[in-house]
Amino acid sequence: MRVRDCVLPSRPMPGLLVTLEGIDRSGKTTQSRLLCEALGDVAVAVREPGGTVVGERVRELLKDPAAEIGAEAEALLFAAARAELTARVIRPALEEGRVVVSDRFLDSSLAYQGSARGLGIDEVARINRWATADLMPDLTVLLELDPDAAAGRGGEEDRFEAEGAALQRQVLAGYRELAAAEPARWARIDADRPREQVHADVLRAVREVMAVAGEPAGAA
Ligand code: TYD
């Protein structure tokens, strides 16, 4: 077998990959849940980092405020968790024609590690292309919220939030740069509104992409 034969096919695959992105506490988890409920059985919910045995362990390590992790190792750990999730859960679901809704994906690494941590978006994209065999989202929703408003939402801080508003501002700037570079893939949505209003916009964006792809529109 030649090396080339071992490389996973990228697309086309029948399903759709929808990713939700935003700074910490921008409401991604709530919006992922509402979206999956609205889409019904066709939807498969995943979260990053996590969703596999390796991914959940990596998540614990990455979120531990006591763990000292260098920026490069951090980027590689996220990519390792993503490689597992992509190969074991996301690709098989896409092959079945499902709509995979991922609470964070590739763009989190580009915004947090590439932009905010200063590793460089291109470098971080390169390791992730390798980790996921070039899997790209069909649609990425950016839930836009000012870091001060996000901080005001309360809850316990993890190691990224503990680094304060400056990091979150850089992350948001990174996301905006990514969205501007690839406007056809991104839907920017104002997340500083009641969650039902935000949900309506998220669902509309997803249904538009499903209609173009000829997917079933789901329940509700
Ligand atoms: P998470 O529980 O997803 O945070 P939240 O629910 O507040 O969004 O925690 C994951 C943390 O890891 C979050 O601070 C963002 C960060 N992260 C990265 O830095 N790079 C990545 O590639 C991913 C997936 C997450």
How would you characterize this protein structure?
The chain is an alpha/beta fold and 220 residues long. The protein has a single domain (15-213), classed as Rossmann fold (3-Layer(aba) Sandwich), CATH 3.40.50.300. The chain contains 9 helices and 5 strands. A 5-stranded parallel beta sheet has the order 2-3-1-4-5, sandwiched between helices. Helix 3 (53-63) packs antiparallel against helix 4 and helix 4 (71-95) packs antiparallel against helix 5. The radius of gyration is 17 Å and the shape is globular. It binds thymidine-5'-diphosphate. The site of thymidine-5'-diphosphate has 14 residues, from helix 2 and helix 5.
Tags for this model:
220 residues, alpha/beta, Rossmann fold, 5 strands, 53% helix, globular, disordered N terminus, binds thymidine-5'-diphosphate
What's the structural blueprint in terms of helices and strands?
Elements (H helix, E strand, L loop, with lengths): L2 H4 L9 E6 L6 H12 L3 E5 L5 H11 L7 H25 L3 E5 L2 H11 L4 H12 L6 E6 L2 H5 L13 H17 L4 E5 L4 H19 L7
Parallel strand pairs: 1-3, 1-4, 2-3, 4-5
The structure holds thymidine-5'-diphosphate.
Précis, in short:
Helices cover 53% and strands 12% of the residues. The protein is of the alpha/beta class.
